[in-house]
Amino acid sequence: MKGRVYDIQGFSIQDGPGIRTTVFLKGCPLRCPWCHSPESQQFHPQLSWMASRCVGIEDCGKCLAACPRLAISPGKFAENPATQKTIRHIHIDRTKCDNCGECASVCTRKALYVCGTDYTVDDLVARLSKDIPFYEHSGGGVTISGGEPLSQSEFTLQLLTALKRRNIHTAVDTTGFAGYETIQSILPCTDLFLYDLKHMDCAQHRTVTGVANELILENAQRIARAGGKLQVRLPVIPSFNDSEENVRETGIFCKSLGNAVTLIQLLPYHNLGVMKYQRIDDSKPVLEAPVPSDEKIAALRRVLEDLQLPVTVH
Amino acid sequence: MYKLSPLTDRVARIREKYRTTRPSICTARYRIVTEFYQENPQLQGILKRAKNFKSICEKLPVLINEDEVIVGWQAAKYRACALYPETSFSWFLDELKAGTIPLRDVDPYDIDPEDVEYILSTGDFWRKECLSAKVDEYIPPGYHKAAGNGVTTFGVKDTCTSPIGHFTANFEKAMRKGFGAIKAEAQQKMDKLEGVLFGNNVEKYNFYRAVTIVCDGMITLSRRYGQECERLASTEQNPARKKELLEMADCLNWIMANPCRSFHDALQCMFLYQIGLCLDAQQHGISFGRVDQYLGSFYEADIAQGRISHSRAQELLDLFYLKVAEMNKIWPYFATLSGPGYTSGQLMTIGGVTRDGKDATNPVSFMMLQSAGRLVLHDPPQSLRIHKGTPPELWEAAVETTRIAGGVPTFENDDVIIPALMARGLPLESARNYCLIGCVEPQGCGDEWACPGGNGTEAFFNLANAFLLAINNGCNPMPDRHGKRSGQTGLPTGYLYEMETFDQVLDAVKKQIEYFAAWHVSLVNTFEYVASEHMQLPLLSATIDGCMESGKDVMKGGAKYNSTGNAAIAIGNITDSLAVVKHMVYDKKLISARELYDAIMSNWEGKEDLRQTILNEAPHYGNDNEYVDVFARWVSDVYGNAINSATGPRGRWAAGLFPVTAHVLFGMFTGATPDGRKAGEPLSDGISPVQQLDRNGPTAIIKSVSAIDQKKFSNGTLLNMRFHPSALSNETGKEKLIALIKTYFALGGMELQFNVVSAKTLKDAQANPKDYRDLVVRIAGFSAYFVELYKASQDDIIKRTELSL
After folding, report:
1. pTM > 0.90
2. A12 inside 8 A of chain B by CB
3. Are A221 and A100 found together in one domain?
4. Of A115, A146, A175, the domain-final residue
5. Distance between CA atoms of B505 and B499, rounded to whole angstroms?
6. Which of A131, A241, B568, B670 is placed for a possible disulfide with B461 were both Cys, Cβ 3.0 to 4.6 Å?
């Protein structure tokens, strides 16, 4: 059994308690326009191209010859930031590209690379076990994130089981959008859910993310009833969910879950992910909004604190 | 939460003066010493040094600046440095003649035209009289052939530009016993010996005689300052300052001759003894040792008796820190490149355990961090000793301080250092009482003469060049700074393209490292042989445990414990180079040995694709990849074993892995290396991975560097990390950083230091230096104001991988 991973990040210090290593699984059923990891959305491996590493077709151009489908052609002129020289970038015809990665294998600068690597549970556990000393000294562990880990639910379950067998603390970062039986299967080996609540209003939730929120809210309640722990994450997205009213309702919902909720994290919107869309030529509309002000975040924090909820801001 | 309290107005004024005054050169010491040496050719050995010191103490102008309470100075002018012609002077005369000293791009110094004239008219005397000239005569002829290798860092001429040692005196003895009692003890020993100077008694007798002379010198210097305070008090109009000056006079007239009575006495005694040591031995790397341990009980007694308030004590400590920060010394231009930013290496040690193994934290431990944080000083550098019982409040204060003043303090691991020192011969109690010297070098505090800076000559060993010589039949492919290419300077180990197996490469590298380690030791031992005749240190020996008992100077092996230190640089580059050769040539057979050899010998000319493949696809140290990390272990073992098994005149050698900023300087003279580094680029720093090739974050770096058996390196190791400020932006970030350090230490790490600054800020500071006057960054063995560094050194810091989330 293999899982598809698009990144593994050590020293993750905002994805649960202690120092953690986070595994990012590829593929997500939601399409949140603020997503800062567009490469996490598709389930299949994707050819990515990082402009800043490309030295241009005059000095290199090996990818053009390497592509068996002739999907790469000369692209726009641009400045090489290292040399200030004008160079000619490449153009990838995504309708022809099948993400085979032949071009990436000849790209010595790693401007082209395939995002998405398949791992067996054993290989991944071996990698994650290397960081055990850090988990032990910090009260940390492994976080499985995505994409949506529950979309690769069998792999996630096997991975969690293997981690628990090594006595590693586990967290699953999820949208909560999955059948409850899937969640139920991983509950015994999930120490903490990092659980996104993007909007309390169902219609709004559906309009923006593409899915309704009933299942998500219901799953949260069932996790709480089953004794699971939740660290609720609230991305603060300007003019979508950043009203005090929505935050208050989210807080009240969290209160209703009793002591299952260990912490609420406010995650202010940032636009650092915008450039990542270009790498995979994702032309879907991306939210480009101003970053919420400190005052705004402080006000939202107070709303939650007034409800006697533990809050942090990242 | 940890908070900084505000500075007093007086302290703020002095700090401003410090940051806005350009350092200059003062000839007061030079004039006194030149006259003394010219008038006293009949005096040699230890008595010459003792009397020379006493003459300085009697004649050097005493300088008390406005607002000062802690006094003592090495020159006649504020922020001026002294000259030390006795050790090495030709370089200074040459630079002075060239007129470049005030115009340097790094650490310029002003000098009066009148002084230039005086030095030029008298300086030639020193060309043959200085220690360097004497050492040159003793260099074994074979080294003239081996020089130019780029592995050892000696020239064959003018080798003694570094000071003697790097050491810490026994400050507690100076405070608790005083030089009056030390002198009386020496006198008693002389009285017993006089008339029965059999056997070695002559040496002992004259050692004690020298001790009485330097004790007089120290007492004289202190009293002259006391008298100056009285003189200033007599004309002072402000009654508060007048009272203060009289208190200062009382302190200065009392200390040195007598045991200290108060926190103020102890602080003043510590600083003035330090000034004495620097005036005698030449400043650099003369460290203070366990300052909180010396001062803690004085502070607590004063507070308990109501003799001082906490805020006054903190102000005195601030003033003491500023005095230390104001000190500096001019180096030859090229040596400056390996230690830029007017640094003086007067390291202070905080925390740790006591001799009986208990937590040593006291209120002064916190006050020291408070001073460093609220003054935003790069100097004095500070090291925090960590053990399992280090209180969380001290951890927090330290992490917060390092965020404000980059790399102050460094974190040192008692659990590794104490056993490492015991392995080099210190008993448990002494090892527990260790302090750090210079950059990161552990040493018994007050009872060991460890010469961690390599006893007066450059202590560095360039592993990257050892590798290049190993695959180039013993020839350094890079010309020296005069453009001269040396011939075959190492062993004829053949060429890479002749080596059929990777084991042959390893064998060649091992041979070259061992060969040059033996040469390096030979030269430093030669240096010590000559220096121990001409440059004994009676003022230091007066307090170091063992000397008064044995009747011998530290330079003659009088200290209770002895060793000699060395440090290797470029572990990252040699580790990566070995891994690249193995991976590309022998394992994967992606290229032939000949191709790789030609590529590096031509500095990658026309081989950019190959270089990129190496940078991006070959395994690199710092990523928790065992394939590479085994070579970090292997090469450090080869070097460490070679050095640790060597002996000097006083005992064994001790290996270390740290660079000051020598990695930038030596990089300029190191050819291209197989890890993808181009000729002239900086080498890697300490045991840190090669810049920007550590791609998997701080946990992977820590796992990789832990592959090195660090307890083998009792002369210190250094791991430098740079974090983006976001990593420390909230309380949990700090907790997690502390957990990261604890994990590193549990994995066997010895030392860790870090900067918390973004590359964006650093680039902006480079472009707009005026806006970033007080930005302190950790360079390697020390910190500096970023804007006072030269560009290559700034670029090196910017280039270091930024670790965040």
Report:
1. yes
2. yes
3. no
4. A115
5. 7
6. B568
